[in-house]
């Protein structure tokens, strides 16, 4: 890249210098002007973020015997029918994910491996 920059500074065209060195023009221009260093932005906490108490209420609702084997897509409408709104379906999934509980919620029978008979 330094060689291409030297050739251009001596009056050779950028296209000609890049072709002779086997470098693409885009790469030449990209190296000529380095990227500006950006500072990492600090994120503000959303005003509508759930409190810890609201999160624990959602989690306790998900653990109730009535809802223990259902997914949030089924639970939220049932709560809405009762006039209760704790959060959206996505919020329920977020709370489950934070507590590492996103998995199949239904109780399923475990099958024993049968031994293949040998003759």
Give the strand tally. Answer: 0
Largest sheet: none
Element order: H for helix, E for strand: HHHHHH
Helix content: 40-55%
Work out the strand percent.
under 5%
Can you give a write-up of this model?
The protein has helices at 2-9, 14-21, 25-32, 52-63, 72-81, 89-98. It is an all-alpha fold and 119 residues long. It is elongated and about 80 Å long. The termini are far apart. The mean pLDDT is 86.
Please describe the topology of this protein.
Elements: H1 2-9, H2 14-21, H3 25-32, H4 52-63, H5 72-81, H6 89-98
What keyword list fits this structure?
119 residues; mainly alpha; 47% helix
Brief description of this entry?
With 119 residues, the protein is mainly alpha-helical.
